[in-house]
Design a protein that fits this description.
It comes from Winslowiella toletana. It is found in: Periplasm. This protein is an alpha/beta fold and 315 residues long. Helix content is 43%, strand content 17%. The strands form 2 sheets. A 5-stranded mixed β-sheet has the order 2-1-3-10-4, sandwiched between helices. Helix 7 crosses helix 12, helix 10 crosses helix 15 and helix 11 crosses helix 12. The longest helix is centred in the C-terminal third of the chain and has 19 residues. The two termini are 24 Å apart.
């Protein structure tokens, strides 16, 4: 018998290309293969805390699961919020990039010294991670980080004209400008910041238990999609997921997916490694997002038993 799970994706802007494994699983018929029907829903508005975006729908039970940042779950834990668990990896590294008016082969972080970077997206996790990176290279006082204006295209144009030296944003946002030649990608933040569970599939602890067979089927489908994704090139991947990005330029979709494939942003499997989780928690603590007084234990926030059940079934 086919079971159903309701997945709230957040507001429509959250459907970024680094979440494409979810759509790939649907496109390849993997959810149907494992007898789980995924109903996709959206939130009315976005948000970067437990109160905003897609998380409230999961808390109230309107949705069974969502895809989002474990950083929100960490903060929720410290604030003694509802018990939420990350149970399957989605994005395994920082999906933000630096772009400039001209290409810069051999870019190193020290190239940022004395430069102006416009933080086009103004997204909390990305800004915190970039500030952490600057601090790691003793550049915090050497780089001028400017908040984006709210007009993405105007900010990109300002970089292209030389008003700013670099644009900081996700490749999802940058790819159209890069594919058209208006900007050039100079660095992925993924290898510079290290492996971390940037995004994961999240559900309430009690719902994971109540609907365990459905969640195992979901995780199995995602795992198979992740294997397919890493064994095909960007053009093949774009062909499979293009219907979910109907308004996105075709050349940009291929370019963006290719950049993410080569930078190791896509999770290679459903596992969320303890060391990656702890690295992310350390980064978020050092930048002030998390309290240093309240540890965020891996075991309290990550449930890998579903992944374990999959591997057990395959033996």
């Amino acid at each position: 018998m086919t079971s159903r799970l309701i997945l709230n994706q957040g507001d429509r802007s959250e459907s970024r290309i680094y979440y494409c494994a979810l759509y790939l699983a649907e496109s390849l018929g993997l959810f149907a293969k494992y007898d789980v029907d995924i109903q996709f829903t959206t939130a009315e508005s976005g948000g970067h805390t437990i109160q905003g975006g897609q998380v409230p729908a999961v808390i109230t039970g309107e949705a069974d699961l969502t895809i989002g940042g474990p950083m929100v779950m960490m903060k929720n834990y410290q604030q003694q919020g509802p018990q939420m668990m990350c149970f399957c990896a989605a994005v395994a590294a920082n999906p933000w990039f630096l772009a400039a008016a001209n290409s810069e082969p051999g870019f190193v972080p020290d190239a940022l010294r004395g430069k102006r970077v416009i933080d086009v997206g103004n997204v909390g996790t990305a800004t915190l991670s970039f500030n952490w990176l600057l601090n790691q290279h003793q550049l915090s006082d050497q780089v001028t980080l400017i908040p984006g204006s709210g007009d993405q295209q105007a900010d990109f144009a300002a970089v292209a004209s030389g008003d700013y030296d670099y644009a900081l944003h996700s490749m999802h946002a940058l790819a159209p400008a890069v594919a058209s030649g208006k900007l050039h990608c100079v660095a992925s933040l993924a290898p510079l910041c290290g492996d971390m569970p940037w995004s994961a599939y999240i559900a309430r602890r009690d719902v994971l238990q109540q609907k365990r067979p459905a969640f195992i089927a979901f995780t199995r489908a995602i795992a198979e999609a992740q294997q397919w994704l890493l064994s095909h090139d960007a053009a093949a991947l774009a062909q499979q997921v293009q219907p979910w990005y109907a308004d996105y330029p075709a050349a940009a979709l291929v370019a963006g997916l290719d950049a993410y494939l080569h930078s190791g942003v896509f999770a290679s499997g459903p596992d969320i490694a303890r060391q990656d989780f702890e690295h992310f928690a350390t980064l978020l603590t050092e930048t002030g997002w998390l309290s240093a007084q309240i540890p965020v234990p891996y075991a309290a926030l990550v449930d890998m038993s579903l992944v374990g059940a999959i591997w057990q079934q395959e033996k």
